[in-house]
């Protein structure tokens, strides 16, 4: 007798998706939450394809969720993960001519950038099959041969329910380790064999997410009402079908050091400075005729909960274990970056100190689901939930020597955002001392020119603020 997908016992090697994972399953169908890691290499894959396959196979052995499938019951709209011992990631190969077609029309955009965007808009998780056994892999891998040089791009495309940013970062680091030292690499990676880890809701410390029915109702009403008052970037085209595009923000190591010095001096993390720069740049573009007109903006800060779960999880536990805090801020124009950054970061940490990232998890999941079901609840049916999202902790990557060892020249990683999402989602990394931000946005709701201008303004605000900190210290 088959077991119902929404029952507690699904399969000897499976479990039901948690509430947060379930929301991602629904969001990915609409185009938000397709996580992509794209790696540019100068090593010919034909020469090292066996090593690559071996490394991916070891990753699947180390992380059961990478050899899992999402099973969907369309009639009940439920999802579950089922892990199999024999599932192997198949690598799709795209030759020079196929890659050249994908790269057509890329005006002053690098091939890595264009392939990243292409993969962000490949959705293997859409469909309306009525079969009870509907199932798809949670990860896909592809290689693209670049037409103009002996270089290629390796891409992993993962479902957000199985991959948050910490997972993507660990996947890259573990892959480089396995590729660099092959048989010895596995010893350097924390093992996580057996069943996939439980959902975040099942690992929350007792009482931390508890909230009375009255408090939940008040908070839900507050979130709903406040969302109607938030200011958005100007929408260029709110009716045409959407896809995800990205703009890259790069700051050299010297200027990055000054910005990080400013953050340290102010007692804040980089997310505070990025959020403040985003709001200053957005307000400047929104209110060019009157920079002193007050506007209210929403910022979502995503925080990794692994360390506070019971039992605590390491960065090597793959899955989605982030939660979100939504703060609103009123901008009138003329704000100084460090003052605004301090204010915004303090607001975030205050919410976090009261465990709002845990107690509000169910509320935000519910509202996200309602917005997906009824886009008309959002401005111009845009599905924009706030102006921007940032991560509390910045990824720091000093693995240049290891990357060179396996021929990795560059990489980009982020998730799609043309369904329900902010107007701009920032995935930040300090790589070899320089700040590298992948800024994701929905197109044509926002245009590339519009977002380039916004990101360029953010860069100017950050660099100027960093110089001001240095000048003040000297």
TrEMBL record:
SUPFAM superfamilies xrefs: CoA-dependent acyltransferases
PANTHER family the UniProt entry points to: CONDENSATION DOMAIN-CONTAINING PROTEIN (PTHR34375:SF3), GATA ZINC FINGER PROTEIN-RELATED (PTHR34375)
Protein name per its UniProtKB record: Uncharacterized protein
Species annotation: Hibiscus syriacus
